[in-house]
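Title: Comparing notes on inverse folding

I've been comparing how different people in this forum approach sequence design from structure. To keep things fair, I'm posting one structure and asking everyone to reply with a full sequence. Here's the target:
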């Protein structure tokens, strides 16, 4: 979607990462294209830019993380994103996942509980030309103002599926949410089949920072 980038020393590293993602089973061509367009080095701390294309999570401000590229690709692929879909992200963090969704043509609302992270992400996304609505608040209750959504992605680990999020899905919509302990979770895709019918599929083990909020963990969880 955004075609203004010039060549940088990071291009070769980015393409190597895309090859790794393919080897690990990412086959959605639009996910791969979006991630090959987006300069992840701009979403990490300047001192960590040399590590931007290692397949690992990295620290950002407020003791949070930018997710591992494989995790971003895997969750996005599992949501079957199509252009024009309404997508809600919980946990803006660095803004990188929101950029991937916007690059794929989704209409993205992203909620972050730390105002500083939300502001930094909004500035970066705007500067890159991505029209993402960044909101500050407790994403465990979703954002009724934009509901219903085709897809909801929760990028922090929850103790259970937050019910308000399941209820803000369209019929046929998909929710990706890591559920488990504060340190280790399984990624679930919850599909809303009918007004009162949801089905959860377990896609395996991941590790996210905790989802803090009324439908998540308490602030001091360990
Ligand atoms: N998606 C992010 C990215 O691309 O950089 C990674 C997010 S990081 C793994 C998880 C984020 O969720 C953190 O920034 C954290 O502050 C945020 N978070 C945790 N609980 C939240 C809540 N209830 N509402 C909104 N954001 C929350």
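Reply #1:
Here's my take.
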């Amino acid at each position: 979607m955004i075609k203004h980038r010039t060549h940088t020393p990071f291009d070769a590293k980015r393409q190597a990462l895309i090859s790794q993602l393919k080897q690990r089973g990412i086959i959605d061509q639009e996910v791969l294209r979006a991630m090959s367009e987006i300069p992840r080095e701009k979403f990490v701390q300047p001192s960590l830019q040399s590590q931007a294309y290692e397949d690992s999570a990295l620290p950002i401000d407020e003791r949070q993380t930018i997710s591992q590229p494989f995790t971003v690709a895997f969750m996005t692929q599992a949501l079957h994103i199509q252009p024009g879909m309404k997508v809600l992200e919980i946990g803006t963090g660095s803004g990188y996942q929101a950029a991937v969704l916007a690059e794929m043509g989704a209409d993205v609302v992203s909620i972050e509980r730390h105002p500083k992270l939300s502001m930094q992400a909004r500035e970066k996304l705007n500067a890159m030309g991505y029209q993402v609505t960044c909101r500050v608040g407790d994403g465990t209750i979703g954002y009724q103002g934009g509901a219903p959504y085709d897809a909801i992605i929760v990028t922090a680990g929850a103790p259970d599926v937050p019910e308000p999020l399941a209820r803000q899905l369209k019929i046929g919509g998909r929710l990706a949410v890591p559920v488990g302990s504060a340190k280790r979770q399984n990624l679930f895709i919850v599909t809303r089949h009918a007004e009162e019918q949801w089905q959860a599929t377990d896609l395996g083990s991941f590790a996210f920072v905790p989802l803090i909020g009324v439908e998540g963990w308490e602030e001091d969880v360990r």
